[in-house]
Specification:
globular, six-stranded mixed sheet, 13 strands
Length: about 325
């Protein structure tokens, strides 16, 4: 047998082992528990993905696909940093394949992906991220900020997608972020205000990349800028906004502060996670990598944090 043939057979054998491992992982999970996560309207929340399949990215992607068979999510809410570390250069950048298309390849993940820009996207060509919908049918990004309404049989959900990186001063005037200074922050904030003011749906969720509150080793001035610019708007519509969902910190955190009643959720990295500890207002935190399942039904909004195997770590419930 030639060296080439030996290599080919070894490659096939490795592929079979990989597929078998995936099957074992799937059958070991509590499928009934996954089915219980399904709502009238359901989503996956994933962010901080782009590691070219390394660390836990491929494992988590496979878990997302297998769980999607039971939950049937409407869409994946992609809360930024699909591409580490320098964003993408164009819609044909090979990173689209190695960070995204070849990783999230399960048939049940061929659903709308609704992204927001993260700080790592701003290190590259953000226009290419916006335009990627012309290449991939499932990449549905209407703008740097936009809103989508989902109508279930018995409930309605409005998801408001926002662009948080321009709200943070330290990114401005920095050549590492070439598209940042062209963004009109005041215009976006006015749009968020008017969108929330007009919202009539039973459930309203806001999705951005940067946290309002979080335990982090990153510069706390990021949160101070978010609290100065965005927080007053969310608090103005606290009777409507149920949750603010974000990523950026690479771990799970659930925080409540003050009396606004909004759940501030940091979703963990879907590839490489970091340590975390409680801070003021922390109700839960975990250093596990993973993603979240968000589901809405009449009178109930639920977010379930799951690890890379699909095991439930924590859940948040909001009732009307």
């Amino acid at each position: 047998m030639t060296v080439k043939k030996i290599f080919q057979w070894r490659f096939v054998a490795l592929g079979i082992i990989f597929l078998a491992t995936g099957i074992i992982t799937a059958t070991a999970q509590n499928v009934e528990q996954w089915k219980a996560m399904k709502g009238d309207v359901s989503f996956f929340l994933a962010n901080d993905l782009g590691r070219n399949g390394y660390y836990d990215q491929k494992t988590i992607a496979e878990t997302m696909g297998v769980m999607a068979e039971e939950i049937g999510p409407e869409a994946v809410l992609a809360a930024g940093d699909v591409h580490h570390f320098g964003g993408v250069a164009s819609v044909t950048d090979p990173l689209w394949m190695t960070n995204y298309e070849l990783i999230y390849s399960h048939p049940e993940l061929m659903i709308p992906w609704l992204p927001v820009l993260g700080n790592h996207e701003y290190r590259g060509n953000t226009r290419a991220v916006l335009d990627y919908g012309s290449v991939s049918r499932r990449w549905e990004m209407e703008g740097r900020y936009y809103s989508k309404v989902f109508n279930g049989d018995k409930t309605t959900v409005r998801v408001v997608f926002i662009d948080t990186t321009p709200m943070i001063e330290r990114y401005h005037g920095n050549a590492t972020y070439p598209d940042i200074d062209a963004q009109d922050v005041a215009k976006q904030l006015a749009w968020i205000d008017s969108t929330l003011n007009a919202a009539k749906e039973e459930w309203v969720i806001v999705v951005g990349h940067h946290p309002m509150y979080a335990e982090t080793k990153k510069d706390l001035v990021e949160q101070e800028d978010m609290q100065k610019r965005l927080l007053p708007i969310l608090q103005r519509y606290k009777s409507k906004v149920a949750m603010y969902l974000c990523g950026h910190i690479h771990n799970f955190q659930h925080i409540r502060r003050g009396t606004d009643g909004i759940d501030y959720v940091v979703n963990s990295s879907a590839s490489l996670a970091r340590k975390v500890k409680p801070v003021e207002g922390t109700l839960f935190c975990s250093p596990e990598p993973g993603f979240s399942v968000v589901s809405a039904s009449e009178g109930l909004l639920r977010l379930v944090m799951v690890d890379k195997t699909g095991k439930e770590l924590y859940n948040i419930e909001r009732r009307r």
